[in-house]
Structures are given as structure tokens and as C-alpha cells.
Prior knowledge:
Elements: H1 5-22, E1 25-29, E2 45-47, H2 56-67, E3 72-78, H3 79-84, H4 87-96, E4 102-107, H5 112-122, H6 126-129, H7 144-149, E5 154-158, H8 164-176, E6 182-187
Parallel strand pairs: 1-2, 1-3, 3-4, 4-6, 5-6
Amino acid sequence: MTxxxxxxxxxxxxxxxxxxxSGRSAGFSTRSAWAPCAREKPSxxxxxxxxxxxxxxxxxxxxxxxxxxxxxxxxxxxxxSYMFANPMVGHWVSAVxxxxxxxxxxNNSRYGAVRRATLSMFKDGxxxxxYGRTLADLDPSPPFEEMARAQGAHAERxxxxxxxxxxxxxxxxxxxNEKRQAMLxxxxxx
Length: 190
């Protein structure tokens, strides 16, 4: 069983509860799905506009951590956006510059933005024949958690909704108490 939109919302709710407890959090996302998530404090959620580019969230989160080292910073990214962000370099910068953030990748093995754009223009053509997977399919997905681990991150692959709360707790602990970056590769359906 993979994680649904409801589980993603539960994840954000858990992160917000930690924010209220610690009073120090900022989230970055390239996913418009988080826009409806209510925020109680200004400057605690940043998202790229529709005219922006993939990969923005990871670097923006590192910049926020550099600017506000006492904040608990979380980057939530789709797998395509994560790959556009040059994750090996991002995790290296996090380690070398001592910028511990939590990166959560929602991995559906698909460039969703590419798929949507292609189908919006060519749904009746060759691209539509395979549900828009041409040039948007990222299957098999790279082992993102291993790439992060190579740069010293606490990193986990999460495939079951029931495993998410404990994985989130371990990742939070790594960032807050161990002062090192953490990454969760959360497997989700498309």
C-alpha cells in the first residue's frame, strides 16, 4: 500500500504540530497540493508559483536554513523536482555547510508537470497512447535515500502509511537533536 493524498495531509499536520511545539519551522514546496494547508504564522510556508521552475524548493530550503539557523526547515518535493534540484549537490551543501534540513520527497516515479503539459497539448497523439508516460516516466526510481545517505543524511524509504509517523519522528530527531540533515523518500501512487 502506498501513501495517498490523505496521508500527505496527515504528514503536514504532524509537521505543523511540531512547529507549534518548537515555534521554529519553515516549509518549502514546489507542490501546489500544499496550498490549502492552513498556516498560523507568516513566513512559515513558501511555494513556487506556477510560472517557476522545477527544483526550486531544495535550494530555497537550504538558503532559509542559512538565513535562520534556529528554524526547523522542511522541503517537500516531488521526485521530478528533487531530481531537477541536483540532490547530490544539495545534500553535499547541507553537510559541508552544516545546514540540517528535512527533505521529504513524494516519489510517484513520474514527472507530473511534464505529463500534465504533454497530455494537455497532445492527448490524442502518441503521447496519449500510454497515459502520458513518454518522457515523464521515472520508473524505476533511483534510490534517493541512498544518495542522501552518501552525504551523511539520516535517510529512509517509506512505503507504508503506518510507517510514516515513526519515520518522521526519526527524521525530526536527526535534524533537531543530531544536527544533521534528514531525507524521507515517501513512495506515493500517481
